């Protein structure tokens, strides 16, 4: 007879994502995970492995459910610089208001908190970074194709700069930066690229 789970693994993973996102992996104890999910330790371990495995799965889930849809929309938006501006407006809004205000981005938080010597964690962080840069590059190339970009600007360098700006917005919003300040910084950066 197979072992029947008396909990929803997806719901447990969603709870773990919120906990790790808000507090970070180092500040989150196993007992907090048990309390937040309502699942006992042995069931957590049997389903997800240890805390490290649950953290890696939480990072993957965050990327697939929160980051990838936003990056896909940016990459597919043919408007160029307005698409980039809208991406950052949405990012600032998400980071400074609503249910997850001042939590930053789980991926940016993972970059900033160190402890990334785990190859599985590094793999997720690199995947996210590559996808973000690719989305930014697609938007920059769309801008260049429609004459919006300043002459001589490298699409690869601009994409790198914008990806780093996104990480900066995520970290500064977590530290309490005001939306207007973040918006001014984004606008100044985009103006450096514009024709």
Please outline what is shown here.
The model has no long low-confidence stretch (mean pLDDT 95). This protein has helices at residues 9-23, 30-37, 41-48, 51-76, 81-96, 106-112, 119-145, 155-174, 179-193.
What keywords describe this structure?
195 residues; mainly alpha; Tetracycline Repressor, domain 2; 9 helices; elongated
Give the topology, please.
Blueprint: H1 9-23, H2 30-37, H3 41-48, H4 51-76, H5 81-96, H6 106-112, H7 119-145, H8 155-174, H9 179-193
Helix pairs in contact: 1-2, 1-4, 4-7, 5-8, 5-9, 7-8, 8-9
End-to-end Cα distance, whole Å, is 68 Å
Q: Give the CATH topology.
A: Tetracycline Repressor, domain 2
Please tally the β strands and state the result. 0
How many helix segments? Answer: 9
The number of domains is 1
Descriptive overview:
- It is a single chain.
- It contains nine helices and no strands.
- The chain is mainly α.
- It is elongated, with a radius of gyration of 19 Å.
């Amino acid at each position: 007879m197979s072992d029947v789970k008396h909990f929803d693994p997806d719901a447990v993973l969603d709870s773990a994502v919120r906990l790790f996102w808000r507090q970070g992996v180092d500040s989150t104890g196993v007992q907090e995970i048990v309390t937040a999910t309502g699942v006992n330790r042995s069931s957590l371990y049997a389903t997800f492995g240890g805390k490290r495995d649950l953290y890696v799965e939480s990072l993957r889930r965050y990327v697939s459910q929160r980051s990838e849809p936003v990056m896909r929309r940016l990459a597919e938006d043919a408007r160029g610089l307005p698409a980039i501006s809208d991406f950052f407006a949405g990012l600032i809004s998400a980071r400074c208001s609503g249910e997850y205000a001042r939590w930053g981005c789980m991926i940016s938080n993972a970059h900033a908190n160190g402890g990334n010597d785990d190859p599985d964690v590094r793999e997720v962080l690199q995947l996210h970074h590559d996808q973000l840069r690719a989305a930014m590059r697609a938007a920059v190339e769309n801008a260049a194709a429609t004459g919006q970009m300043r002459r001589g600007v490298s699409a690869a360098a601009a994409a790198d700069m914008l990806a780093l700006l996104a990480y900066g917005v995520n970290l500064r919003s977590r530290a309490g930066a005001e939306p207007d300040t973040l918006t001014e910084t984004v606008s100044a950066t985009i103006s450096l690229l514009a024709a």
